[in-house]
Amino acid sequence: MGPTLEDGLRMLREAAEQAPSIRIDLDETYRRAIALVEALPSNQSGADKSWVWRMDAAFREHYRRVRRA
After folding, report:
1. Are 43 and 37 in contact (CB under 8 A)?
2. Residue 39, C-beta contacts closer than 8 angstroms, at least 6 positions apart
3. How far is the C-alpha of 16 from the C-alpha of 50, rounded, in Å?
4. What's the DSSP call for residue 40?
5. Distance of CA 55 to the CA centre of its chain
6. What range does the domain containing 25 cover?
7. Count: domains in the chain
8. Cα–Cα dist 55/63, whole Å
9. How far is Cα 48 from Cα 42, in angstroms, rounded to an integer?
């Protein structure tokens, strides 16, 4: 028998109960890397991010044309 809606909801409830106990520790090197990327001019509010849509369209077009060899 396949999974049911109740199975999915039960799994979500269990995950939500476990979430507070999950701890992720990031080392200082990783935090510095994040800070550097966030500080880039292209990541600032108001920066032109229209390239994202062009890249997404090109990605989808490329894989739309892919055929199994």
Report:
1. yes
2. none
3. 35
4. S
5. 16
6. 5-65
7. 1
8. 12
9. 7
**Distance in angstroms (rounded) separating the CA atoms of residues 62 and 68:** 13
Residue type, 46: G
Tokens coding 44? 């600032």
pLDDT digits (tens, 9 = 90+) for 9-64: 999 999 999 999 999 999 999 999 999 999 999 999 999 999 999 999 999 999 99
Predicted TM-score of the model (pTM): 0.45
Question: Tell me, what amino acid is at 6?
Answer: E
CB 41 within 8 A of CB 47: yes
Q: Report H helices in the chain.
A: 5-18, 28-39, 50-65
Quick one: pLDDT at residue 1? 53
